[in-house]
Amino acid sequence: MGFCIYNNVAIGAKYLLNKYKYKKVAIIDFDVHHGNGTQDIFYENENVLFISTHQYPYYPGTGSEQEKGKFNNICNIPLPAGTNSEEYLNAFEFALKKLEKFKPEFILISAGFDSHSKDPLAQFKLETEDFYIITKRILETSKNFCHGKVVSILEGGYDLQALRDSTKRHVDALIEFN
Ligand SMILES: [Zn+2]
């Protein structure tokens, strides 16, 4: 359920687990909507850590802190409408700590840019530069256990200018890292 027919990031994670026999894959979802489909697919899968920051309460209605997964492998970070850059980045530290503890071999990013302040669908107040910072922090944290194995998949973003600029800064951080 949501806006997509196929859950690209879930297909990617399953492929890593089945074809390449990875045992620990983390998915970080910073799209403004809760990644309910991804959560459902991996709710009882101890090989996948799913971390989602999202506006809450909001569509699709899921994503409370109480939804933790069978193996404590789901980490929901619900934030209220109006969340600004500072509040978001503070909350994101918790996501990074969770990542550090899990020590994934591979990270997939559900990169949604609808948490931008200009986005018409939701009410987060992130700015273009925040996506550079978020990406940098994920990559810095991943250094010790992922060795560059990070793949980002584009998710939401409904203000075309904000989407373009934010995606560029996200990709800038990815390129710099390599
Ligand atoms: Zn979204």
Secondary structure layout:
Elements: H1 8-19, E1 25-29, H2 36-42, E2 48-55, E3 74-79, H3 85-102, E4 106-111, H4 128-146, E5 150-154, H5 160-177
Parallel strand pairs: 1-2, 1-4, 2-3, 4-5
Helix pairs in contact: 3-4, 4-5
Bound molecules: zinc ion.
The site of zinc ion has 7 residues, from loops.
Describe this structure in words.
The protein has helices spanning 8-19, 36-42, 85-102, 128-146, 160-177, and strands spanning 25-29, 48-55, 74-79, 106-111, 150-154. It has 5 helices and 5 strands. With 178 residues, the protein is α/β, with parallel strands linked by helices. A 5-stranded parallel sheet has the order 3-2-1-4-5, sandwiched between helices. The protein has a single domain, classed as Arginase, Chain A, CATH 3.40.800. The structure holds zinc ion.
Q: In DSSP terms, counting alpha (H) and pi (I) runs of 4 or more, how many helices?
A: 5
- Mean of residue pLDDT values: 96
CATH topology: Arginase, Chain A
Alpha carbon gyration radius: 15 Å
- Please write the string of helix (H) and strand (E) elements: HEHEEHEHEH
State the CATH architecture: 3-Layer(aba) Sandwich
